[in-house]
Amino acid sequence: MIIERLSGEHHNIQKLLAILERELEVFDRGDRPDYEVIRAVISYFEVYPTVDHHPQEDLVFAKLRTRDPSAAAKIGDLAREHLKGAERLRRVAHAIDSVLADREVLRQNVDAIVRDFIDQERRHMMMEDRDFFPAALKALKPQDWTEIASAVTSRKDPLFSDVAEVRFEALRAHILRLEQEAEAERK
Question: Per-residue pLDDT tens for 51-69?
């Protein structure tokens, strides 16, 4: 089902935000974070959420607006939220590019830009999981889901699928390593 897929993607995005947060902590200590991993996270956000995830949410939201306008109104302007997230991501990419190009940039400014992106993405997904998805599940009819399913792409996630793109290999390996470390800590 579409909502289950979107929720699963939120779970995967949370992993990426946690990695970005860890690398930011390394940066804040004055050490050198793994910029290859950071660039891969940024690249992922530029590709998958923008091209596949958000358009699917927008289709569901359009149906919700038709079926339950008051629920949609409580959620707000989802497309605008997605555009604001893309703008925050551009600021993150620019800040990281500036650091990598050895431009004068204050460490606390980079921290604030990246942290704002992380915090806002988490807030946005929490709202979708808590308010938007349940409202859509309640209001949409079977034919709505059929129409949405026929309109969405069947493209695989370029990082979290069995057809992961080569450019995300370092990030995928990093995620697996972190998951193994977390599993070892739980034992």
Answer: 888 999 999 999 999 999 9
